[in-house]
Amino acid sequence: MPQHPKYSISPEKNLEDLNNLLWKLETFGYIHEELDQPIVELMNHLYPQIRDIYTLSRNDLSIDSKIEDYDLDDIDPYLANISELWDLIKMDQREQFIQDYRNVIGFCVFSENPHMNSDNPEVIKSLVKMRDLGYYRMHLLSDSDEEANHLYKWFDRTVWFPEDVIPIRTGIYEISSRGYKDPKLDGYAYWDGSKWHQKCSLLKACIKQKRSKKTIQTSLFSWRGFLEPISQIEVSDNLRTYQNQYQLRLNALKGVNSYELAEPVKI
């Protein structure tokens, strides 16, 4: 029986890992590079609204219009590749996209005739039925906080300090359980001036943490902080940009400001 999947908490890292998985399977001759085609076709079928936006854009047509408004003989068919689909996915759709991509890869790798079934309605329905974000979220590994990485990537940090050096100021710090000589950022913890509190994998969880005597812990961390204070305005601006990435990419297609992507198809 196959074991449960283990997803990174970062959808971006999951996408990179799945792409690398395909590349490794091709490199060592387990699959043929032509398997990319049915994978792309199935992913386009699972996200038809985005596929249509891409097709309209490539035909120099308004992405506010609908494919059915045109004579299909006058439209060149286009399929968005995986990275192009990803660029047009809303932030809150990305976990589902990763689960879909993982399931599509599995179907194409283990199916006897993936090319023959890449537009089979029954196959598409079966892939839709496999959608289960609750199951996906049960198997997340807290290995990366992509939102925090993006929000604070341009802010200078201090060096990593050893466990026996305590912070001067109270507040939340990036922490490493591997020491300061070979550190690995593995979460965030609050220093109250005398004790560390329980670490959190996500920065926003650490900010919302209800700290009390129960959250105090005796273990120590290697840590680092920011060199300069960060204003709430800077954080809010960065967060707004991060959350609107899909809209910025959509605007780049045709300069449209009003289009709102539909949810993934439900069959």
How do the helices and strands line up, and which of them pair or pack?
Blueprint: E1 7-8, H1 11-27, H2 36-46, H3 48-58, H4 82-87, H5 94-110, H6 121-129, H7 133-138, E2 140-141, H8 146-151, E3 171-176, E4 188-191, E5 196-197, H9 203-208, E6 216-217, E7 222-224, H10 232-243, H11 245-254
Parallel strand pairs: 1-2
Antiparallel strand pairs: 3-4, 3-7, 5-6
Helix pairs in contact: 1-5, 2-5
Question: What are its keywords?
Answer:
267 residues; disordered C terminus; mainly alpha; 2 domains; single chain
Characterization of the model:
With 267 residues, the protein is mostly helical. The chain has 2 domains: 7-143 and 246-254, no CATH class; 156-224, no CATH class. 42% of the residues lie in helices and 8% in strands. It has 11 helices and 7 strands. The chain has helices at 11-27, 36-46, 48-58, 82-87, 94-110, 121-129, 133-138, 146-151, 203-208, 232-243, 245-254; strands at 7-8, 140-141, 171-176, 188-191, 196-197, 216-217, 222-224. Strands 4-3-7 form a 3-stranded antiparallel beta sheet. Strands 1-2 form a two-stranded parallel sheet. 21% of the residues are buried. The model is unreliable at 256-267 (pLDDT under 50).
